[in-house]
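re: the backbone from monday

yeah here it is again, tokenized this time
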């Protein structure tokens, strides 16, 4: 009859055996390095094979996410295209109505005037003047007094032209002034730079003038310098102090004067074929007069 409890190897012997094996492995570690490398090389294909399901799952999830993202973007773009198409239809109707009104009034239309995109090469480092240098000059037909706009509104006018470059005086410069009108009631004002990029001042505004915060100011076309109707600024504050003869009206330029990269040069009174690139008569005198008014 076999005993119920059989005594095996003692714990002390097991501990001694483990210690001896550990010492042997530590001593033979360097000698086992080639064997370890061989085993690693032998098992590498198996690791790649084992990783295939996970890689396929990740690739499928990425493709699915990309397709979903493209589907969402396509749906959003289609929605924007529809909205823009509807807006374009309304603008086309307004343009046609505007053309009819202009024909009745005998006012010229300059919608097809020549335009040119220019890149900013340099920004003024002089703290007393605010201007930028463009990569187009007299060789491209740029002339002194030429109006310049960005994607949001009027940015300034050309004040100096060389053969390949031109210098644009920004709206915010203290020597720059532009005649504007309020779109709400057609009140005409003079917007003058204050030396601060995001601030224009309306000079000599009577206290009785109907001007409100939020009014949109556009170029009035007076002086034949800037084409009529281009956005210039929006009124930010109106203060009427009893101790002052005129109201203090401050507006913010719509053009992003602090981050200009590209600007659009306009030829308001030049045919789009570009044959006549000479500036109008007396244009330099008009620029000086505009600066004197601003001062």
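seq for it, each position gets an aa:
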């Amino acid at each position: 009859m076999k005993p119920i409890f059989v005594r095996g190897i003692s714990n002390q012997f097991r501990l001694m055996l483990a210690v001896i094996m550990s010492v042997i492995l530590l001593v033979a570690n360097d000698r086992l390095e080639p064997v370890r490398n061989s085993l690693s090389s032998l098992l590498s294909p198996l690791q790649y094979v084992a990783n295939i399901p996970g890689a396929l799952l990740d690739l499928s999830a990425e493709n699915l996410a990309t397709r979903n993202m493209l589907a969402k973007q396509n749906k959003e773009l289609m929605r924007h295209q529809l909205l823009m198409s509807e807006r374009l239809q309304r603008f086309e109707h307004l343009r046609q109505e505007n053309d009819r009104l202009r024909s009745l009034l005998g006012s010229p239309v300059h919608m097809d005037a020549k335009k040119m995109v220019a890149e900013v090469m340099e920004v003024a480092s002089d703290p007393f003047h605010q201007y930028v240098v463009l990569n187009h000059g007299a060789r491209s037909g740029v002339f002194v007094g030429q109006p310049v706009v960005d994607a949001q509104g009027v940015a300034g006018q050309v004040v100096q032209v060389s053969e390949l470059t031109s210098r644009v005086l920004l709206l915010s410069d203290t020597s720059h002034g532009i005649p504007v009108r309020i779109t709400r009631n057609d009140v005409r004002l003079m917007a003058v730079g204050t030396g601060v990029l995001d601030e224009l001042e309306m000079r000599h505004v009577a206290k009785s003038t109907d001007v409100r915060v939020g009014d949109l100011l556009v170029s009035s076309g007076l002086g034949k310098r800037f084409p009529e109707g281009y956005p210039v600024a929006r009124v930010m504050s109106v203060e009427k102090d009893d101790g002052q003869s005129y109201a203090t009206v401050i507006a913010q330029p719509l053009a992003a004067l602090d981050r200009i990269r590209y600007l659009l040069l306009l030829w308001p009174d030049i045919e789009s074929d570009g044959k006549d690139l000479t500036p109008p008569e007396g244009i330099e005198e008009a620029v000086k007069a505009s600066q004197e008014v601003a001062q």
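Residues 1 and 7 are 16 Å apart (CA to CA). The longest helix spans residues 33-105.
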